[in-house]
């Protein structure tokens, strides 16, 4: 579980080009969007592609992302439950 | 009709034009197929959260625009107008290659979103939270001139008082390689590298002491070598100025077969010292915005850097500068400035 | 009164002429269907407003040599621009100072995406290297029409053509030109289909603008142009004026690179500016041709902006993108042509596929063809990058 969280943090930083962040800067429960890490709707779409490509989970409605991408912890739980890859 | 003045000019180019207070003193010699711009320290102008999605052209554009506003001591312009010949070609190539490489799967939105031609103008507006008039011109070698002419129109028709206007192009990698290849296959092709850069200006209908006036400009799609002199004369007559009054001609020479147009214009201006600049920054569709930057600096400083001189002598007093640019015999533009 | 419009030409999924477009609009007949001309993995998952003519068909109709290097964007543009000049009865182009302003977002992308990997080696493909940039289609059309004065191209995403029309009006007002052909052209491309797919805003069904259950947009392709002429030319040539461009406004939402703000600020400002320039009050507007892309975000934001401008008295409105699909850079001029048809016919056109009003606003678009008195029409075009533009057309 911790490994997945670590992996997700690395992927988020790389995929979203968060140059000023390191894995240590993102706590498991940090809010990713809005006031937290400052991610926005374009980032949500990037993460949806990551879910599909790396974990075989397909979302059809971008609104679903709102809950799933709340924090790294929530995202890791969601992936663990449904991953196909 | 309102007069139009230049309140500031800022350029990012292959020379030290952005971070230096000098004026083309330490020239970097450029050669080869392509020449990138000297990039500023973007962190001074763009927050890292904003810059993380930006390609070269957007970063250059936003930085140059920010500094142009600072120099003019202007917080919010009444209009933001940009010109770009190739648009956001880096992200265009990136998205296109992802489509090809991944066979239309697992595509992400960022490079698509950032590939639209109006990205630079949009990002400047977004950064400033500027809800004013916003437009982007994308017509090859008159992309910047179209933007400048629109600025002139909105000032004269009193839709705006202060306009931020600029030209920006980035090299990219793939299309430019093919363009260079085609160019090099032609013995009379462009003799300078392909380049990139961003030059931004604040133009205003408000007079300031020692302000540089944009007297007038003309843009024309098609002119023959034989009729370009007539076009020039029509333009000068319209603006009630003698050809002999032009102190400096800044030409867009790039060494190709179409330089003959510049010869024909130069001949008409008996007292003008002719300058060129593309040998210093390369050729690109909005390179002429760098030409306007040099004109602004020359009129302000009353000094001509020796590396700009193509023909004629240095001058002690410079009042009128005419800029003339064309690309492959098409897309002609005249810009007349007065101190 | 504004700037006179004396001619128009159009090609879109609902017709290859103004007359055909009118027939489709009056019959509530949409042109949206299954993609045919482009090879893409997603063809089964999208609906598009595609023009039935192939590039080969267009080449023949335009009497171009077979080895030309027009992209589809250029072919469609030339087709519509020629029709606009014909409609304005213009034969001798050099009689007056004439300009050409065209809008595009894709430019030559339809060919670049086919030949990018052959550019290095295939001489046949190399002719399309120079046709990639956005100005190329404009230049080719201008050359074919023998327009040699001011020629330029505008690209502000989905508001592009509205801005082209606006610049044309300014140039006429400034007396820099006597006559100007303004509009835009965008062909469908794999690039845009995939791009909008990444944004997850393309519907697999027929788009339903302003509907509570709208699922997104259908992309379309089109080209259309208007001929604007100065009062001097109108008098001298005794021209028939189709309608007047009486107002225009351009503002930026400055909210997000792609999304529209919750309060529709950019749209609100653009409409306000256009009304002011036209010297009209909101109650003077008889019909609104909305931007109405059918994405959840746009239609909500635009509805709020409409409420802010028009209060409780929102005029009849509809989105004709339910006929043509979203034709991107061309949308502003396609809808300008439809607005002028509406003024000429004193008839407004329906918003197809609408069932339920969105709960946040309760706004109900017009859902059938309605005959009514129409004096002033407001048309909206909004784009990525927060670019918002509004045009107002008035009866001649």
From TrEMBL, chain A:
Residue stretches making up the Carrier domain: 1-83
Gene3D superfamilies, alphabetized: ACP-like
Species in which this protein is naturally found: Gelidibacter salicanalis
Which superkingdom does the taxonomy of this entry point to?
Bacteria
Tell me one Pfam family matched here: PP-binding
PROSITE patterns named among the record's database cross-references: CARRIER
Question: What name has this protein been given in UniProt?
Answer: Acyl carrier protein
Matching entries from NCBIfam families are given as: PRK09184.1
UniProtKB/TrEMBL annotation, chain B:
**Cellular component GO terms held in the UniProt record:** cytosol
What residue stretch is flagged as signal peptide? none
Coiled-coil annotation reads none
Q: Name one GO biological process term.
A: fatty acid biosynthetic process
Instruction: Identify a single GO molecular function assigned to this protein.
Output: 3-oxoacyl-[acyl-carrier-protein] synthase activity
Give the record's keywords alphabetically: Transferase
Q: Which SUPFAM superfamilies match?
A: Thiolase-like
* Domain Beta-ketoacyl synthase-like N-terminal stretches: 50-177
Gene3D superfamilies xrefs: 3.40.47.10
Q: Which domain of life is it from?
A: Bacteria
Q: What is this protein called?
A: 3-oxoacyl-ACP synthase
InterPro entries in alphabetical order: Beta-ketoacyl_synthase, Ketoacyl_synth_N, Thiolase-like
TrEMBL record, chain C:
A Pfam family (short name) is ketoacyl-synt
Q: Do you know which InterPro entries this protein is assigned to?
A: Beta-ketoacyl_synthase (IPR000794), Ketoacyl_synth_C (IPR014031), Ketoacyl_synth_N (IPR014030), PKS_Beta-ketoAc_synthase_dom (IPR020841), Thiolase-like (IPR016039)
UniProt cross-references to SMART domains, sorted A to Z: PKS_KS
Q: Which residues form the Ketosynthase family 3 (KS3) domain?
A: 1-395
Top-level division of the source organism's lineage: Bacteria
| SUPFAM superfamilies recorded | Thiolase-like
Keyword annotations: Transferase
One GO cellular component from the entry? cytosol
Q: Which GO molecular function, any one, fits this protein according to its record?
A: 3-oxoacyl-[acyl-carrier-protein] synthase activity
Q: Give GO BP annotations, semicolon-separated.
A: fatty acid biosynthetic process
The similarity comment for this entry is: Belongs to the thiolase-like superfamily. Beta-ketoacyl-ACP synthases family.
Q: What is this protein called?
A: Beta-ketoacyl-[acyl-carrier-protein] synthase family protein
What organism is recorded for this protein? Gelidibacter salicanalis
